[in-house]
Amino acid sequence: MTSSTAQTDPTIIIALDLPTQDAAESFLAGFPWEKRPFLKVGMQLFYATGPTWVASLKERGYPVFLDLKLHDIPHTVYHAVKSVANLGVDMLTLHAGGGVSMMAAAREAAEVAGADTMRLVGVTQLTSNDQRTMNEEIGIPGTVEDCVRRYAGLVAQAGLHGIVCSGWEVPMVKQAMREAGTEGIAVVPGIRPQGVASDDQKRVMTPEQAIQNGADYLVMGRAILRADDPVRVYEQIQQDITKVRRI
């Protein structure tokens, strides 16, 4: 499998949280061809468009993060990952709560399929969850940080490439992975520029804060999708991130 490289710094992954293929194509039409931003296709859009459209994004040179949050028995996840590998996507999510055997099966499937450039990342706790939700509704005791740290260790044990976590948890997650004997990337959703509403997210952070905390990729949807000039907002955030990295 081959993977195209974005023509701009791929730190920002634009979440195409849109209902239809037409809406997604209309949004992408506003970006100059040479930019080809890193795109996240989540469940809503994937279920609406199917795998053929995702494959077409790759054919057109877009890096693609397929955010399906796979969580099933190891056998099912193994075959799901083999199917996804055929699309040539650059990144795929699994729920770390599925356990080491499930995540290891995903890694094995990617290896068997020859998907050497597809990064598998484990979702720890959704950024819409807080401690009350985790303790009282889901039934997991302890703090969110305790759970995230434990899941990070499981992700490392399974041999995945990194973690999806909030910006606040990046240093802890990377330390937990190092303690488990590996280095991993941190993919951070729940990013909101200063002054932008947090909506249904609870553990949010600004782009600058997340980069300072060690995030490798920032997933941003509504702040860019809802902007009057999405390209200008995207470019401004990229510039702000570059300044932080130079400090």
TrEMBL record:
GO function terms (MF aspect): orotidine-5'-phosphate decarboxylase activity
SMART domains referenced in this protein's UniProt entry, alphabetically: OMPdecase
Active site residues according to the UniProt entry: D67, K69, D72
Enzyme Commission number(s): 4.1.1.23
UniProt entry tagged with the keyword Lyase: yes
Catalytic activity: orotidine 5'-phosphate + H(+) = UMP + CO2
Pfam families given in the database record: OMPdecase (PF00215)
Subunit structure: Homodimer.
Name of this protein: Orotidine 5'-phosphate decarboxylase
Biological source species: Polycladomyces abyssicola
